[in-house]
Please model this.
Amino acid sequence: MIKPNDEGSSIGVKICKNFNLLKKQTEKSIQNYENLIFETYIPGQEIQVAVMAGKSLGAIELKPRRKFYDYKAKYRKSAKTLHIMPAHISKKKYNEVLKISEKSQ
Model:
C-alpha cells in the first residue's frame, strides 16, 4: 500500500497487487505528495471502536461495497457502506477489541 503521509480519510491511498503497479503508483504519487508511507496490505474486516474518557463504547463493523474503506466509502451516501453494530465477530473477539481500544488511549 502507498499512503500519503500528510493526508487523512484514505485520500491518495493505493493498493498495489504487484511490483510493477507499486512502481507505477509510486511515480504518480510522488508528483502529488512529498512524503509517502509504504505498508503491507492486510485484508480483513474493518472494525472501529468509539472510546470516551478511556472507556470503549462499542465496536462497529464497516463493510464497504468498494475495494476498501476509502474516502468515498466513508463519506458518500451513494457508496452504500454497511454499518453493522455490534460488529459481526465472536463475543471473545468483540471483548478483546474493546480492551485493546481502551489500552490505546
Observations:
- The chain has two domains: 2-38, 46-103.
- The helical segments are 19-32, 71-75, 91-103.
- The chain has a mean pLDDT of 94.
- The longest helix spans residues 19-32.
